[in-house]
Automatic annotation (TrEMBL):
Name used for this protein in its record: ATP-binding cassette, subfamily B
Domain (ABC transporter): residue spans on this chain: 356-590
Chief site of localization: membrane
Molecular function GO labels: ABC-type oligopeptide transporter activity; ATP binding; ATP hydrolysis activity
The ABC transmembrane type-1 domain, residue ranges: 38-322
Pfam family of the protein (one): ABC_tran
Transmembrane segments: 37-57, 77-101, 153-174, 180-199, 260-284
Originating organism: Atopostipes suicloacalis DSM 15692
Length: 601
């Protein structure tokens, strides 16, 4: 399931200090677009000032002209024009403010998503061994999308705070005694906000985890659909999905309840109490003397302008918490240091003869249990060394550390008598051709899958590579031939055809070292005969390390290494090992017996 499998103990309230650290770090992503954000904030300040000025315009007109009976048509038109003009300016400024902010916000999210995707591709294989596909997909899609809403929340917070400050300032200038009564509501708001923050951060953490589990369940179901249907597991998978989905619903519903209680209803209640209190205060003043009607109008308008942003703030607290949790999860991936092994990177070092040597190599995936123990062997230039053994014997682990997917703990691996750690990773990737047991095909065309988007490879080279491994025999029969469309994961192609294309994509780069990881395991006998000649030609002039599933395919290997429990227990040529009468001989006889029985059926 997920990386660091999530359980209920991980659903915790995130302290404000930790939230502020997360906020500070995630804000660094806006740096490339700081000018647009700054311009948008400047316009927000302008709007806050205009909002504070407008009620005073009406108050002045009421008290200085209407109440005194000196209002004229021209006066009314003038005040109306001023108020309308400010409203029109607000509309125009709001457009530019939203345009600038949303453009910068979208670019920032694009930047975050690109960096996150790039980071995932820099992480080592150990990360993917411990992390589900759904977990990763959630980080790159759902969490970055939540972050987009987060920027809008920050804008609303800035708008609301500026509106509150300018409005309260305007109230102080109008009547400071009545204004101070408004401050009595602040402690209540602080208590409500604090309670909401503690509760919601824990609940949002749980919601995000359940969402990851949903994505994981969905990814596993889609990828494993043939197995699910073959073994009639549809009902079980549906029930499991419904359980996770119901758990996710309960988390969402819990958040909905707290939002319904603590957000807008609280603010609306406080707003109503504030209006009643202000009218009561002015009513009391009216008993002592006259009270200007315009002042009452202005104050009630200011109270509305004071509580309206608070309503927006409280409504946005849920999105703020969502954004903080998503930001934290994104930063967790950014902080992950499960990288591929690091190279010393001697830039001018090149692979020439392609001699491979393992010297007392010990390797463990978890730094506790050794899967390879003191492995030593040499593959001379142009030779083929085959690795055989039962499942778990360490064959694939040798391939993994030679390909630099994992770091080995002890010993040395040399290529041309130089440590493998000294070669630039690009040199290793160019000169080591890897053909896996399970070939993967990307969406695109046959050409795309052979070229793998390397534009330096010409169409002629693609055709020659396909002919070399005899993949051209089925490609030429396809509609569109080399431009034939390939759908996701190569659906519509047989395992043998996909493997042939994998051979072609490897050989087109002309690597000096060839690694075959049970390359013929998924190929039918007829196809195996077809490509065996191509494999032999691929090995000519190349140093080859082959994991053998069918022992008959490596009879001509220069050396065969038999592995058991991470150790080399036998080594020699096919003939030498048969004469030895040990494990290899037993494996070979068992396979021949199996083939003989199969042919008699």
């Amino acid at each position: 399931m997920e990386n660091n499998v999530e359980d209920e103990s991980q659903y915790r309230s995130i302290p404000i200090k930790e939230q502020m650290v997360t906020l500070k770090r995630i804000l660094k992503f806006i740096k490339p677009y700081i000018k647009q954000f700054a311009a948008a904030i400047f316009l927000v300040i302008f709007l806050a000032v205009v909002n504070a000025v407008q009620p005073r315009i009406i108050q002045t007109f009421i008290d200085d002209y209407l109440a005194t009976g000196t209002a004229t048509r021209s006066t009314a038109v003038m005040f109306g024009a001023i108020y309308f003009g400010l409203t029109l300016v607000k509309a125009i400024v709001t457009f530019f403010e939203l345009y600038l902010f949303n453009t910068a916000s979208e670019k920032t999210i694009q930047n975050v998503r690109n960096q996150l995707f790039a980071k995932v591709h820099r992480l080592g294989m150990k990360f993917f061994d411990n992390t589900s596909t759904g977990w990763i997909v959630t980080r790159v899609t759902n969490d970055t999308e939540a972050l987009k809403d987060f920027w809008n929340v920050l804008l609303n917070i800035v708008q609301s705070l500026l509106s509150i400050l300018t409005t309260f300032g305007a109230m102080l200038l109008l009547d400071w005694k009545v204004s101070l009564w408004i401050l009595a509501f602040v402690p209540i708001l602080i208590v409500v906000t604090r309670f909401y923050q503690v509760y919601s951060s824990k609940t949002y953490s749980e919601m995000k985890s359940k969402n990851s589990m949903l994505n994981t369940q969905l990814a596993e179901s889609i990828n494993g659909m043939p197995i699910i249907q073959q073994f009639r597991q549809e009902k079980r998978m549906i029930n499991e999905f419904e359980e996770v989905n119901d758990s996710y619903f309960q988390s969402n519903f819990s958040m909905t309840r707290i939002n319904a209680i603590l957000l807008s209803p609280i603010i609306n209640l406080l707003y109503t109490i504030a209006i009643v209190a202000i009218l009561g205060l002015f009513g009391y003043d009216a008993l002592q003397g006259s009270v200007e009607i315009g002042v009452i109008y202005a104050f009630t308008s200011y109270v509305n302008l004071f509580f309206q942003p608070l309503t927006r703030l409280m409504d946005n607290l849920s999105l703020f918490q969502d954004g903080v949790i998503s930001s934290s999860r994104i930063l967790n991936v950014m902080d992950d240091e499960t990288y591929n092994p690091q190279q010393e990177d001697t830039q001018d070092l090149k692979i020439s003869d392609a001699k491979i040597e393992f010297k007392d190599v010990t390797f463990s995936y978890d730094d506790e249990h050794d899967v390879l123990k003191n492995i030593s062997f040499i593959v001379n230039p142009g030779e083929t060394v085959a690795l055989v053994g039962h499942t778990g014997s360490g064959k694939s682990s040798i391939i993994n550390i030679l390909s630099r997917f994992y770091e080995f703990q002890e010993g040395e691996i040399l290529i041309d008598d130089q440590s493998i750690k000294k070669y630039p990773m690009e040199e290793l990737r160019n000169e080591i051709g890897l053909v896996l047991q399970d070939s993967f095909m990307f969406y695109g065309t046959i050409k795309d899958n052979i070229r793998l988007l390397d534009d330096s490879i010409t169409d002629e080279e693609i055709i020659r590579a396909a002919q070399f491994v005899q993949a051209d025999r089925f490609i030429e029969k396809l509609p569109g031939k080399y431009d034939h469309k390939v759908v996701e994961r190569g659906a519509g192609f047989s395992s043998g055809e996909k493997q042939l294309l994998s051979f072609a994509s490897t050989i087109v780069k002309d690597p000096k070292i060839l690694i075959l990881d049970e390359a013929t395991a998924n190929i039918d006998t007829e196809t195996e005969v077809l490509i065996q000649e191509g494999l032999n030609r691929m090995r000519e002039g190349r140093t080859t390390l082959a994991i053998a599933h069918r022992l008959s395919t490596i009879r001509d290997a220069d050396q065969i290494l038999v592995l058991e429990d991470g150790e080399i227990v036998e080594r020699g040529t096919h003939e030498e090992l048969i004469k030895l009468g040990g494990r290899y001989s037993e494996m070979y006889e068992l396979q021949n017996l199996g083939y003989t029985r199969s042919s008699h059926k």
